[in-house]
């Protein structure tokens, strides 16, 4: 069966990109399908309902990271895993309908990246979670544009937040995380990213 559907990673403003990489569903090329000043970053796929394997979820993230690296400063509005469309025409219709939402989202994230900070306590330690959150707010929030909490999916996890940070402030945020590590040497700080700003956009498009 030929791969005639389009799997969408995210949307950029203007411009076109094309590069070879390991993409979702075994594809090896990523390119843009454009409508006016929006470009959907896609690869070809043989289904409109892809299964979210660990490998393909990682490929989805890796493609977005490569787009961010190639288009430095370009706003990338990331899509959640699984957005696939049966034709360019269908995809362009979706871009047309969601254009105002995409433009607003691009303004929100342009020139910014997402970084993640987790704080983990030792198994036998007792830690005041409110105090940890207060320390993080004092040290990290002044360097970030926004932050959002994530699930505390483990009893040992006392802080789990995503931060939207200006690219130009990345080094300052690195320093702030190091300061938090110094202040909270009773915790293990896990610092991740940069990621496409999943946590700070809320544009949902229906797969067809």
From TrEMBL:
<dbReference type="GO" id="GO:0031411">
    <property type="term" value="C:gas vesicle"/>
</dbReference>
<protein>
    <submittedName>
        <fullName>Protein gvpF</fullName>
    </submittedName>
</protein>
<dbReference type="GO" id="GO:0031412">
    <property type="term" value="P:gas vesicle organization"/>
</dbReference>
<dbReference type="InterPro" id="IPR009430">
    <property type="entry name" value="GvpL/GvpF"/>
</dbReference>
<dbReference type="Pfam" id="PF06386">
    <property type="entry name" value="GvpL_GvpF"/>
</dbReference>
<comment type="similarity">
    <text>Belongs to the gas vesicle GvpF/GvpL family.</text>
</comment>
<keyword id="KW-0304">Gas vesicle</keyword>
């Amino acid at each position: 069966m030929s791969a005639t559907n389009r799997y969408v990673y995210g949307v950029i403003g203007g411009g076109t990109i094309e590069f070879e990489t390991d993409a979702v569903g075994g594809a090896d090329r990523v390119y843009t399908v454009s409508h006016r000043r929006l470009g959907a970053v896609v690869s070809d796929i043989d289904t409109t309902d892809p299964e979210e394997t660990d490998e393909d979820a990682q490929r989805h993230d890796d493609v977005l990271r490569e787009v961010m690296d190639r288009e430095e400063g370009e706003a990338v509005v990331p899509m959640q895993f699984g957005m696939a469309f049966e034709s360019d025409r269908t995809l362009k219709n979706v871009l047309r309908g969601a254009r105002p939402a995409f433009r607003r989202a691009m303004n929100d994230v342009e020139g910014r990246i997402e970084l993640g900070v987790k704080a983990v306590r030792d198994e036998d330690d007792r830690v005041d979670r409110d105090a940890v959150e207060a320390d993080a707010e004092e040290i990290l929030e002044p360097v970030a544009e926004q932050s959002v909490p994530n699930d505390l999916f483990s009893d040992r996890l006392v802080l789990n937040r995503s931060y939207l940070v200006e690219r130009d402030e990345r080094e300052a945020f690195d320093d702030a995380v190091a300061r938090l590590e110094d202040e909270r040497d009773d915790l293990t700080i896990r610092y991740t990213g940069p990621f496409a700003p999943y946590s700070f956009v809320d544009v949902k498009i229906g797969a067809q």
